[in-house]
Amino acid sequence: MTPETLQLVLPNGATRDVAAGTPARDVVASIGPGLLKAAIAVAVDGEVQDLMTPIRKGGAFVVLKSSDPRSLAILRHSGAHILATAVRRLRPDAKIGFGPAIDDGFYYDFEVETPFTPDDLAAFEAEMAKVAAEKFPFVRAEISHGEGEKVFADDPLKLERLAELGPGEVISTYTDGPFTDLCRGPHVPDTSYLQHFKLLSTAGAYWRGDEKRQMLQRIYATAFWKKDELDAHIHQMEEARRRDHRVVGKQLDLFMFHQFAPGAAFWTERGTTLVNTLHDYLRELHRDGYAEIKTPLLYNKGLWEISGHWGKYRENMFLVLDNETKEHDFSLKPMNCPSHYLMYSARKHSYRELPLRYNTYDVLHRNEVSGALSGLTRVRQFQQDDCHIFLMDSQIADEVKRLTGFIIGYYTTFGLTATLKFATRPETRIGTDEMWDRAEGALKAALEATGLPYELKAGDGAFYGPKIDFDVTDSIGRHWQLGTIQLDYAAPERFDLTYAGDDNTAHRPVVIHRAVSGSFERFIAILIEHFAGAFPVWLSPEQVRVLPIASDFAANAAEVTAKMRAAGIRAVMDNGNDTLNYRIREAEKMKVPYMAVIGKREAEAGTLAVRERGQGKKQDIIAVDDFIARVRDEIRTRALPKPAE
RNA sequence: GCCACAGUAGCUCAGUGGUAGAGCACUCGAUUCGUAAUCGAGCGGUCGUCGGUUCAAUCCCGACCUGUGGCUCCA
Questions:
Q1: How far is the CA of A42 from the C1' of B53 (A)?
Q2: According to CATH, where is 3.40.50.800 located in chain A?
Q3: Which top CATH class is A5-65?
């Protein structure tokens, strides 16, 4: 039987007819030997495959060089194989798991008797360099199930994967020198393509992410085509470390943790100022149309039985022993919603009151598993800017539009940009299709009214209603899911919430759950990292540090400080015995936005020599009153800092 | 919760089977200074907790506590 002929279309429009099953390499070589040298892989009809793989279909034929972003994942996946090659040489007992490329590197999972040490990691890295230097070609083979069972007889994890592959699937292996892996590919042509890589860390990882399966040893690594790209990546990791809110929080004396209260922050005076300033801002934003309320922290389990948390969420709740019943009949609230429903249903409501917006900043507790805790971003005690809105179906569109604008406006104040995610009806859900049509339609209309780009996450909604999530990007490009707008048709049923309509009969309201910051703790962590601790003036715990050059000017400086404070500016005088240089250094380290220096000239003229944070020696001689007006203006407008360093 | 790593002065960290050190901070003294560290002296630690091994443990072993990285990215 003659092989089928496939037509490939090159980017310049030329065509090639090749026999099905021809390795891609041969086609590339026929175009030009120079091109073959630069080629990493090819894309046929948009599908990436490597040079070793036979061509099985026709279509657009594009040669991928290292400059093509798609080739990086190939390099990294090959890096994973090279890592496994090195590990197998040094630890022949290691059973291999999976080794994929990931967003910024790759990993490989191994099952070993004794876990890897940092010394092992260094040895593996050195061995990888050797494997690369040996320039082993990646050899692709297509095999049967039976052959695979022989090749991987000693690798139970691979056998498990092999057994899952159906009869119709091509089973392929890749061999580089001594190491053969069950692998779909694609790969670079040979091991020498891996030049710029680094092993980063080891970690335990459950086989297939399943906590019931065995724990494997994962090695994380990264690789790039060019040395300067690898260096830049390492630099980026260091930059993230420099901005780490746990480090900065200590340096700026904002918060602390203690082993007696794991997962709960202690806020210092400065940190509390920051928290309160955010609260004040939110309260200001909520002045119009929101009812701030406070509800208890501790509840009888009866409430959680109604809400459903007692059954599903109890493991994550802090239970409290009742001395009379000797039972854990009480729990700290892990969320505000049920308590807001209690408050709503405590009296009758008219349709004229709706939308009724309950807003709170109460403290919540969730008993996160110990391994999940991390700085301020994953805590057990936190505050949400939590809002529950009770409204009629017909009000959803307007309300969502209002909320979206509110949330985006809030982020904009901090220079954070958001992308929106629209999550629609999941497979298992309550309510009628008409109800979902209405709800999704209203959310969609509101989304489009913002003019912002959004991503559709079909089927990702809650079982009780669709939602919009706000995904925020910070100044170093990291993403955080913060705000949310969720429609809820289930809670009003469970809690039997009603309002009297204009027909004087009881109707069911809809509930919208809305959070802007998520939790304050996490939001502050994000702000710290976003600003690298150099907060805008309005947020800075200390806004101005007044520095008399010598104690002769202390009286004058104290007067100026008092005047600033009277004007609502958080000003502190530093009249230590230290030199001016020393005190400037201290103020810079604490990221105080303004340093106001007073010497003989300033004292006589009623001026200040103002130094701005991060701007070096440059000084601005300005009258005290003018400076006060300027700072007050910056606070009032919540001006963002000058472009970050 | 599970795996690895870590826990030494307020902070950052060094160190050793024979009960500990540096810099900064802090206190005191001197210095009164013009834009990122003035000089000197001093104070300060049950080496995370409990247990074991040992003549002897901060160091070796075990448990616990707390923290850090990770436990979804498919052969």
A1: 63
A2: 544-637
A3: alpha beta
